[in-house]
Amino acid sequence: MSETILYGYWRSSATYRTRIALNLKGISYRTVGVHLLKDEQVQPAHLARHPSGRVPILEIDGHRIGQSMAMVEYLDETRPEPALLPRDAVLRAHVRDLKDQIVADIHPLNNTSTLARLRGQFGADDAAIASWYEHWIVRGFRVLEQMLPAEGDVCVGHEVTLADIVLVPQVANARRYPQIDLSQFPNVVRIDAALKKLQAFHDAAPEQQPEASQQ
Ligand SMILES: N[C@@H](CCC(=O)N[C@@H](CS)C(=O)NCC(=O)O)C(=O)O
Fold it and tell me: Ligand 1: does its nearest atom lie under 6 Å from the Cβ of 173?
């Protein structure tokens, strides 16, 4: 069987999603670092892997996949246990609804290249960037807070799903901006704390990656 390789950046939340899914599925893999602060994602060596110019890229079963959610769904389709989507169609839709609140509606607005464009094209300084970042986190987390259950350790039902895989990395991103008061989102904070106790989530955390100690 071919080696599984995750091309990513230790602090990237999209890479963090894929690490969680690989761990949940019990797949061993090797990481190849693509340093975002050195713009390695847009260098020819990385573009040759995938034209997106982003991380992560996953090499698995002899294929390369871009987009963290395409990776996670591929893993779920080819390694069905533990399932990352409920059987019930309504619950599946709810999981995808929650997942896209983050993947589609929050994350791209606060991505590194979006923030760089705000600086480069519109002269945004650090304060303006922080305010922009906070705006989209707070708006998105207000939605999540209302959609999440008032009790329990996961986003939907009793099992870990795609929604949990994207929630924890997004909360980690939010915590990088200390002015964002997460106490206004008690359901988000409770579920994040519970999930991070699971081995697959713990081992995938940025601070557990070897690069974290090299900073
Ligand atoms: N929708 C993509 C997002 C990938 C993405 O934007 N990754 C970020 C790091 S979290 C990145 O590569 N940023 C570098 C850039 O935007 O140039 C996915 O889920 O994989």
Answer: no
How far is residue 165 from each of residues 13, 19, 34, 130, 132, measured CA to CA in Å? 10, 9, 21, 25, 24
Q: What percent of the chain has pLDDT over 70?
A: 99
Instruction: Choose one of 20, 54, 100, 107 to mutate for the ligand 1 pocket test, by most ligand atoms within 8 angstroms of C-beta.
Output: 54
Q: How far apart are CA 1 and CA 143, in angstroms?
A: 43
Q: For residue 167, which of 204, 209, 113 has the smallest C-alpha distance?
A: 204
Residue 213: pLDDT over 90: no
Q: Is 32 helix (H, G, I), strand (E, B) or coil?
A: strand
Cis geometry, peptide bond prior to residue 86 (ω within 30 degrees of 0): no
Distance 108 CA to ligand 1 centre (A): 8
Sequence-distant (6+) residues with CB within 8 A of 51 are none
Instruction: Supply the residue whose CA is at minimum distance from atom 16 of ligand 1.
Output: 113
**Which pTM was predicted?**
0.97
| Per-residue buried b or exposed e for 34-46, using 16+ beta carbons within 10 Å of the residue's own CB | bebeeeebeeeeb
Phi/psi class of residue 205: alpha, beta or left (left: φ > 0; alpha: ψ in -120 to 50)?
beta
What the chain holds in terms of domains, given with CATH numbers, is: 5-82 (3.40.30.10), 89-201 (1.20.1050.10)
